[in-house]
Amino acid sequence: MESRIDRIKKQLSGASYKLTPQREATVRVLLENEEDHLSAEDVFLLVREKSPDIGLATVYRTLELLNELNVVDKIQFGDGVSRYDLRQEGAAHFHHHLVCIECGAVDEIQEDLLEDVEAIVEKKWNFIIKDHRLTFHGICHRCQDK
Amino acid sequence: MESRIDRIKKQLSGASYKLTPQREATVRVLLENEEDHLSAEDVFLLVREKSPDIGLATVYRTLELLNELNVVDKIQFGDGVSRYDLRQEGAAHFHHHLVCIECGAVDEIQEDLLEDVEAIVEKKWNFIIKDHRLTFHGICHRCQDK
DNA sequence: ATTTTTAATGATAATTATTATTAAGTGAAT
DNA sequence: ATTCACTTAATAATAATTATCATTAAAAAT
């Protein structure tokens, strides 16, 4: 069966880009750290563990490229750095974030939840929704226990 | 009756800060441009029209302070700059944004829309919501006409 | 009132995140 | 083999923001 990396390779070549070793290394890091929300710097440091010669700008370019191809989502939580999330396979790529204002942890919600809201917005404001970002800020379950 | 600037003054003094002339000038600019989503640079240029001697750092410091006091919301749409919105008086300060991917315009939705969703999130993920950010990216009604 | 302390400011340097440039490397297609 | 487009690493450049620091204004204490 086709691996995720194969599929990403196809997405790249479909847009006439190549899966170079640097790009592959970057994608692998994203695959291996899917839970986290890595910044470009994070990705760079992780990629460099296995590919010590990669440049930071290459990582930025690769992430930007993957973002354009909708392989990753570039998101911002307000701390000044962009973070990059691999999109989930197929289905709804919609997911939301829970940012804890105590410990800074970022959890994910893998459900849409917004179908109804979107229908209202499209109709009432006459706006064609292509994407959305929903983040809740508050106290995570771990910090509530403390 | 109490003006908004008076109320902000109270919020500052309540936290033992003063409403200095520079801070007041900054707040006035925010009040006079409530529709827009001004960046620090925008605010700086507008403040300087009336208070030519103000420094950029002071504007940044003031905006940061106002953000900590929850007088303004510091938001990011992904274009690399932080923007500062005065919070609405009392009531639900919740509002959402429509960012047009064609022309870059940012419109506001002054309705909550998320009550139901929040109830679900609080219960299912055991997360105490203090705030949220919801942004839709898509095509605004103006660009649809073109 | 005058000193003492504290807070806030303006100017500017430093930092951080990101993007652009450049020169060199690589590989597919002649 | 040679060309040509793509990609890269290194580095420079830029933009946004933050830190530093000497100076000033205000408040508190004498």
Automatic annotation (TrEMBL), chains A, B:
Zn(2+) binds at C100, C103, C140, C143. Its cofactor is Zn(2+); Mn(2+); Fe(2+). Binds 1 zinc ion per subunit. Keywords: DNA-binding, Iron, Metal-binding, Repressor, Transcription, Transcription regulation, Zinc. One of its GO terms (molecular function) is transcription cis-regulatory region binding. Transmembrane segments: none annotated. CDD domains: Fur_like. Gene3D superfamilies: 3.30.1490.190, Winged helix-like DNA-binding domain superfamily/Winged helix DNA-binding domain. InterPro entries: FUR, Fur_C, WH-like_DNA-bd_sf, WH_DNA-bd_sf. Fe cation binds at E115, H132. Belongs to the Fur family. PANTHER family: FERRIC UPTAKE REGULATION PROTEIN (PTHR33202:SF7), ZINC UPTAKE REGULATION PROTEIN (PTHR33202). This is Transcriptional repressor.
